[in-house]
Predict the structure.
Amino acid sequence: MMSKMKTGMYILDLIVVVGSALTLLWLVGYIQPLVIAPVDGLVTGNASLVFSFEKADRLYISTSRDFSDAQAITGENEKISLSPGTYYWKVEGLGESEIRMLTILDSVALEVRRHDGGIEVVNVGSETLNVEVFDNAVKVDSFNVTNEDSVISSGDMAIGRKQ
């Protein structure tokens, strides 16, 4: 009778231990932040990125893997603009995600807007551009436009090239 009772206790102890271990594994997975985007190792020319994650409330972005110069951003699904370079990022909530890396390449982007009978040429990229302006397919102007700078010119079309 005593050995049946000991065997029953061992079985009950085993059930409690296994149940506790399964519960702990479930909880650890449940509190782990879910990182959706951008993917690890992303290389892009787009300096404006959406960081998408769940079960986290802080995003850390750094140029060093040890996060010594980290910028902390609170919220979910944040849109961030970054200069060209390599960045490391992670999210934290009750748990912490793995460290991911992304690289922003130099970007070449030109925006042309109608402006009082002419055009306004805006460099929205990160590189200085050599711009040629045309009016009815005839070249009427050329100039350099630096990052986030704009120039107003007569004409109806502009072409920009990296210097």
